[in-house]
UniProtKB/TrEMBL annotation:
<dbReference type="Pfam" id="PF06320">
    <property type="entry name" value="GCN5L1"/>
</dbReference>
<dbReference type="GO" id="GO:0016197">
    <property type="term" value="P:endosomal transport"/>
</dbReference>
<protein>
    <recommendedName>
        <fullName>Biogenesis of lysosome-related organelles complex 1 subunit 1</fullName>
    </recommendedName>
</protein>
<comment type="similarity">
    <text>Belongs to the BLOC1S1 family.</text>
</comment>
<dbReference type="InterPro" id="IPR009395">
    <property type="entry name" value="BLOC1S1"/>
</dbReference>
<dbReference type="GO" id="GO:0031083">
    <property type="term" value="C:BLOC-1 complex"/>
</dbReference>
Amino acid sequence: YFVFVNIDIEMNRRSAAGDPSPGGLEASLVQLVHHHQLSSAALRQQTEKAKKEAMRAGLRVSELVVDAVNGGVQESFLNQKRIESEIRSLSATISRFHKHTDQWLAASRALNTAIKEIGDFENWIKVMEYDCKSITAAIRNIHHA
């Protein structure tokens, strides 16, 4: 629309000036076409430049996203390794604790058995003491009789 309006204005201007030559009109049209080609070329260059910038920005965004995802994956992997190391350490600690618990349990059972044996020995001593007193009393009775 803009081109046609410019052509009409140019034709009216030339008619008013008394310039009926078609060469002037052709020159105007050539100039308009040339101007259009230059502006199209400039627009194409701007579009290509913007496209390249968009591609660079998109590439940078994708690199940042990949880095962010990989960073999270790497952090998760390191955390998993730390957790596995802690699990192995805790497992070894639990095994040592289990071994010590078994040793304490065996020692307490041995002590309990020894205490029972002491009680049995004390009871045997009392029985022996009673038997000795009974024998001593019987011998005295026999000796006084």
